[in-house]
Structures are given as C-alpha cells and as structure tokens.
Structure prediction request, 222 residues.
Amino acid sequence: DAGVIQSPRHEVTEMGQEVTLRCKPISGHNSLFWYRQTMMRGLELLIYFNNNVPIDDSGMPEDRFSAKMPNASFSTLKIQPSEPRDSAVYFCASSARILSAFFGQGTRLTVV
Amino acid sequence: EDKVVQSPLSLVVHEGDTVTLNCSYEVTNFRSLLWYKQEKKAPTFLFMLTSSGIEKKSGRLSSILDKKELFSILNITATQTGDSAVYLCATQGGSEKLVFGKGTKLTVNP
Prediction:
C-alpha cells in the first residue's frame, strides 16, 4: 500500500479563492482525520469520519471550511473563501479500528 | 472535551544524555495512547499503548502508560542528533477520535 496520499503537496492561492485539498486513505482503514498544523497551535483536529460518516466537526474553524467523504477511498477539505490566516500545513490521517493512525505527507497551504 | 498535555514544550540536551518526555491526558472512554515523532514532514508512528504498566521498547526508545494516574512517558536513552524532532502524544477515545498534544521539541546537540 502506498500509504495515505494527499494532494496537492503545496498550494499557493490568493485571498478569496476556493481551495480544495484531497486525501486518499489507506485501503481498509475506516477512520479518516483532517488536521491543521501551525507553529502557534500545533496539530488541531478539524474533523473526522468513521465509515465515511462525519462524527465530530467541532474543530472546523468556521463556515468557510467544509469536508466530505463520498466513499471509503476519498475525502476532500474545502476552504471557500480562503484567508491568509488559513495558511498552515493540512494533514490527513487514516486508521483502522485496532491500529494506529498513519499520516499523509501534508499539504502546505499559503494564502496571500 | 478530550485533552492532552505534554511537557516540557522544548528540551535541549547533549548527545549521550537520557531524556524523559511526559504526556498527561483526560479522555472519555480511553482506548489507546500513541506516540509519534515528527521531523520535517508528517508525524511517524512510534508506539501504541493500551494497558498500564507494560513497557513498549524499540531500540533506545521506550514508553509506558499509567491509566490510573492518566499519564505516559517516553524515554530515549543515549540520545543522538538524529533524535532531534518534535515528539507528539495522542489519545484515542471511544469514538476513535484522535487528539494530539502540542508536542515536545527535542534538540540533541553533538
């Protein structure tokens, strides 16, 4: 298995634009997590899914953020409209019920 | 709300020193505690602990969990410069929610 795959690896966009981050979890994993990492706040859990269903989205900063998991092999995190304070590294991780979570390589987002 | 607190926030040591990193937690329906190492990229998995008092070891790294006192420690003996990283502690609760602490930044100087 190639592990958790995220795309793009880097994204630079202008304030106000829509940004879509993508994640393909490890096959067979039933939980998927989206995290945001900054120097100030560390790794913050934004939302997580279990069996494709969103379980807890209390970490989503505001209505500009949305996440979907249409099937077991794909998830998206969308920011619309983007703002400079959204600049961070966004990680996706997946886990199976009795296993540890494995992380993708992250998407470094810069909003100018 | 689930909470994970790590200490110290940062630590600078010399090669060969032994270090102990701390993690305390409050989580609903505790299932497991995990340690990760993060260098420049994504966190990589080190240990998963589910039972009290059973030490997990991997080379110079070891970890133990105390479910009564709600904490875990990560020990690194004979530190090397390659151990320099941020070490992250996370807990997984009954709903499989995975919550991380802010990490301990370890710097090992030659």
Notes: Residues 71 and 97 of chain B are 18 Å apart (CA to CA). Chain B touches chain A through 20 residues (CB under 8 Å). The longest strand of chain B covers residues 19-26. The radius of gyration of chain B is 13 Å.
